[in-house]
Amino acid sequence: MKPLLKTTILAATSAFLAGPALAPAHAQGGDFQSCLQTIKADATRQGVPAAIADRAFQGLTPDQKIIDLDSKQPEFSLTYAKYVGSTVSNDRIVKGQQRLAQHRALLDALQSEYGVPPHYIMAFWGIETNYGGFMGDFQVVRSVATLACNTKRRDFFSNETVQALRILSLNHMTREQMRGSWAGAMGNMQFMPSTFMKWGVDRTGDGRIDLWNSLPDAFASAANFLRGIGWKPPLPAAEEVFLPQGFPLDQADTTVEKPVRAWAQMGVKKAGNAALPSSDEPSSIILPAGYRGPAFILYPNFKAVMNWNRSTLYALSVAILAQQIAGGPPVVQAPPADDEPLSRDTVIDMQNRLARLTLYTDEVDGLLGPKTRSAVRLYQKQIGMPADGHPTPAFVRRLQQAR
Ligand SMILES: [Ca+2]
User: Alpha-carbon distance 226 to 224, whole Å?
Assistant: First the structure.
């Protein structure tokens, strides 16, 4: 799945996902109709009967609310503390445990078929829709058609519209029933139409994939999707770790991969001091709230979770929630209380200053991505701060005072 699109958490994650603001192209009236006709031609080439497309597009108008939501850019980056605090609540852990017990037999069967553990399916379900509590009430065809015809992401959403028409043509849902987030993510697991078509599973065998009302269909589809995007037993996606004194902070970066065993040899332990698994799988260490906050080891399944949603904080939240749904411990190390989100303007200013120091050569986009963090790390080394790549307000002040 591409970034930008997982909208149940869009406000929360887009600072980590999004590219620069895209001006809407504003197809109105006739333009919108001719755009729909182009999509219809694509759809019929992919086997959708013209009558299905005509019925789906009948009376359809672009939704200005969606255009506005799409053009909105987050003001602030998010901190680990805020993001994980809001996605992994006590209530969500307890509900996840209850749901898991309730659907145990089905989830165990899915684990033996797909290799995806029950607590991970529950964690995705909890974070995507609060266990089916908010699946979105936008008409999906209208959403994806609006985004195809009125934004600059035309190719991506034209295909999503074609896939939505295919779902209709296969009789899984009616246009009216097919509802989702404003960007077209549908049902319990918030699948985009293309994800639905590629990975959806009819677990109940009634001939329809129903990701809204059938939990067997929704859970099996999630398990099938996760396996398809790389999930493999037995390691989890991530776990909290304790780093030894003097651990080289520049090793705590997703670009640094070592066998799990090599981290263990450096003195890295699970939080609580248990040994890391004896494994030669490639893994990384990250410090999402800087060196004063918790450290995590990312196993290969972290990449599978990132293929579901390309946000590090999203993937961490899934792993943390899953572990606690399974009865495991909460995160031990608290994040620093004085960590604050940086505004877009602050990040732009920081990128400009780091560029003038020839430490940052990428686009000045106001987003706190891996390249910006590497530049932060380089400057931290120059001035003798712990080089964790995490720009705190104190770091920003030091940089602003630099000559
Ligand atoms: Ca079904």
Answer: 6
CATH class, domain 238-325, is mainly alpha
C-alpha–C-alpha distance, residues 231 and 14, integer Å: 24
Say how many Å lie between the CA of residue 168 and the centre of ligand 1.
Answer: 15
Q: Looking at residue 26, what is its pLDDT?
A: 54
| Cα(25) to centroid(ligand 1), Å | 38
C-alpha distance from residue 50 to each of 137, 178, 217 (Å): 26, 19, 28
Among candidate residues 385, 341, 387, 337, the one with its CA nearest the CA of residue 366: 341
Q: How confident is the model at residue 15 (pLDDT cuts 50, 70, 90)?
A: very low
- What residues does each domain of the chain span? 238-325, 344-401
Contact (CB, 8 A) for 364 and 18: no
Can you give the pTM of this predicted structure? 0.90
198 C-alpha to center of ligand 1: Å?
15
91 pLDDT band (50/70/90 cuts)? very high
Interval between CA 362 and ligand 1 midpoint (Å): 47
The residue that leads in pLDDT, 14 or 299, is: 299
Contact 265, 290 (CB under 8 A): no
Q: Give me ligand 1 centre to Cα 205, in Å.
A: 5
DSSP string computed for 38-53: HHHHHHHHTT--HHHH
Digit-coded pLDDT (tens) for 115-125: 999 999 999 99
Q: Which fold has domain 344-401?
A: Muramoyl-pentapeptide Carboxypeptidase; domain 1 (1.10.101)
- Give residue 274 CA to ligand 1 midpoint distance, Å: 43
Distance CA 279, CA 232 (A): 14
